[in-house]
Amino acid sequence: MNSESVLSARDISFRWKEDQPLLEDISLDVARGQTLAILGPNGAGKTTLLSILSGRLSPRAGSVNLDSRPLISYSARERSRLIAFLPQLEKLAFNYRVLDFVLMGRTPCMEVLALPGKEDEEAALKALSLFGLDSFSMRNIGELSGGEFQLVRIARCLAQGASILILDEPASMLDPAHSRHIADALASLADSGKTIIYTTHDIDLAIFLGGHALIISEGKIQWIGAAGGLVNEDILGRAYGISFSIKQLPSAF
Amino acid sequence: MKQGRSSPNSPHHSSLVIYLGIALIIVTVLSLFIGRYPVPGIMNPFLLKTDPIARQIVLNSRLPRILGATLLGLVLGGAGASLQSIFSNPLIDAGFLGVSQGAAFGAALALVLGFRAYSVIAALAFGMAVLALALSIWLSERFRYGGQILRLVLAGLAVSAFFSSLLSLMKYIADPLHQLPDIVFWTMGSMVPMSWKRLESAAPIAVLSLIVLYAMRWRVNLLSLDDAVAHSLGVRPSLERRIVSVAAAAGVGVMTAVCGVIGWVGLIIPQIVRAVDGPDGRFVVPRSMLGGAIFVLISDTIARSVFSGEIPLGIITSLLGALSFAILLTTRKVELAR
Fold first, then answer.
1. Is the ipTM of this complex over 0.95?
2. Are B109 and B169 in contact (CB under 8 A)?
3. B271 lies within 8 A of chain A by CB
4. Domain covering A5-240, topology
5. pTM for the full model?
């Protein structure tokens, strides 16, 4: 095992149905402060891999270690102080105010039945201001655009205080300006020392954010390397099963 | 920025709860003296000193009934608000887990079996309410369709329908002259049966339920989020959802066992509370409890004062509830987010 890695997976396999293996013998190490992009075709198991790395799903075989200790040995509370997970989609039944929504991210820092206090409110406001969202704090979630909501969700992850952020497609379904805004936000989090693991279909985004990237397809890691290495028609062609060409086209990054 | 909203830790939020508390005390005191003795209207409080009948009516008839109505309202409002949050569905109340229909069937069964003692009727009603809840949870774990929330809602629906049809069967086979009117009256809900003794028997479970729901008022916010997010925040969604459901169902079950089925309170009060100042459980849960108590108390005072014959409380709450619901939905944007 790589001793410097903060999160490491060894030979993990997962299947929803017995005859349909989704992930097979996946091993990876994520160093503290590293940014790792996970790419791959739809249905390749990217979200499942994130769920396993965040402790929400247990692999059928293999193990995940967090700080050299099995992830399953952490209590839910302990884990939530170290890893923040953001699912791709989030439906809300209630129209919470932005500040209250971000305050929910403070829960791991509070006693179990305690209410958030002044200190938590300050932390939530700080997380919002880091993304330039100060003026949104008293608005309702329902008044936000898709891109603003996405930033607010990332601010909630940040308010959690965890050093590892696991984000499922954080910049999908957004216009180029909002994608760029999210990318800048993630870049500043990476600069501040956060470990970021995220999935994306946007190859430009992975190259822009840099760090490491891996491609999974057919249940296996097909390629892993520096994100800049994605500028390669052969690697992308093999992963997605179509031909790629590297062109100069408009890009938000 | 939206004007007029305040920070969650500001005095504004707690003062609203204090105002509601003061309003509840005023309504409680007023309803002690409103009624049909000695004449329809408000009784002179000094009559308590001079008239032993007035003292008897106020202290032994109205007071336990008013405290019972308050407890019932607190439980219905708190349970409704909490359940709506944890099942991410603003359009449900405690009845949906099968609790109300289970209790109604239990009471009808007792009446059809010829038991007239109220303790037996209440015990069977509470037993069936608990059985209905257990069945809903058990069934939801065996459903092979949908996520945890949808499974529980569907299981509650199935269990409600099951007990509802058993209730119809009881009505069908009941003696139409003696048992059927009792069953019908019980399913309409009423505070008439409330006495000091019954209040004492129901209060411990109801108060315990209120304590748990109040303690969980921040956690219900987290349970309203996507399960993956709740999990990431260190919440154990299935376990915590079960704690809140059991607390809500036990409180509603034990009060329904005494008073019969009282509809709409748990649905409409949290809606009104949310429409006023947002959906945060920290404030919605206690305010819904107090709002529920005020609503039930006013409804019960109307039920026992307007006509010489008692109107079943469930009829008043449903009537006022349905009207408020219609007004709320036609005058305000429904507060559903994404």
1. no
2. no
3. no
4. Rossmann fold (3.40.50)
5. 0.90
